[in-house]
Amino acid sequence: MIIELENGTRYDIANYSLKRLFHDIPSVEIAHTIQSVEGNGDIVTASNFKQRVITVRFLYIVQDIYDYYLLRDELNALFLQEKPFYIIFKREPYKRYKVRLMQQLSMEPSTHMNSFDVQFRMENLFAESVGTSLNLQSTKQWDADLWGWGMGIDWDKTYSYEHSSNHFSIENIGNALIDPRQHELEIIVKANAASYLQITNQTTGDVYKYGGTLTVNDTLVLKGIQTLKNGLSVFKETNKKLISLAPGQNIFTVEGGTIQSIAFNFRFLYM
């Protein structure tokens, strides 16, 4: 198992005298709000997804009790991160899970070896791809550490996430909606526009509008909930709307200007 910090630093648990015995990733749990209506029985008025908790059983191996104490302290420093981090299982190196440690680390002392469980609370409901859409567009599509079977990839297909047209499609090969309020999504635009630029995802109905001018020397970036023009915020010049990506093909049209290039960089999400 690999632990990856938000800055990209990776730690292999094998270097800490640890072995992953097994792990359990539960399915998404749904909580329903139910109201009784006379004559109609119970009806569901709302449904919410509950947070997922990953349980991993580890085996530690030490030489003596003093070695155990040293390992215990090292593992406390490894797992007790203030910020969320990612865990990656080596049998699925192309997926990562953003997590926080859910409870205190508890290891029974031993002079040789012992097993213990660690629970990680998932920050998001979904696993995300290690590779991004722009990685998939490149020759890295065939990198076994980035892509694998079951990720929705058609291996005979060429994927394109950068276009130079006002009409194009973007394929989300994951099985969950990508919402820039919660997930990584960066749209990089270079265009000529006299007074406005409007981007519409015909599939989701999302309409984003920037009410300013653009020249070939400008770069407009939609990153999360931000809009940046040449690195400066121009969010107040937009319609305060965002672009999301549904699973499958997303059909786009752009109005108000001529696209020179538009690139979508994001990670795919999986249940």
Textual characterization of the structure:
The protein has 271 residues and is mainly beta. The protein has two domains: 2-122, Elongation Factor Tu (Ef-tu), domain 3 (Beta Barrel); 131-270, Jelly Rolls (Sandwich). The chain has helices at residues 65-79, 133-137, and strands spanning 2-4, 10-12, 18-24, 29-37, 41-50, 53-61, 85-88, 95-101, 113-122, 127-132, 162-163, 167-172, 185-201, 206-210, 220-223, 226-229, 232-233, 248-270. The strands form two sheets. The protein has a 16-stranded antiparallel β-sheet that branches. The chain has a two-stranded antiparallel sheet with strand order 4-5. The protein starts with a strand and ends with a strand.
Uncertain stretches of 5 or more adjacent residues: none
Secondary-structure element order, N to C: EEEEEEHEEEEHEEEEEEEE
- The CATH topology of the largest domain turns out to be Jelly Rolls
Per DSSP, the total helix count is 2
Q: Taking Cα atoms only, what radius of gyration do you get, to the nearest Å?
A: 23 Å
CATH class of the largest domain: Mainly Beta
Average pLDDT: 91
Shape: globular
- Kindly name the structural category: mainly beta
**Number of separate structural domains:** 2
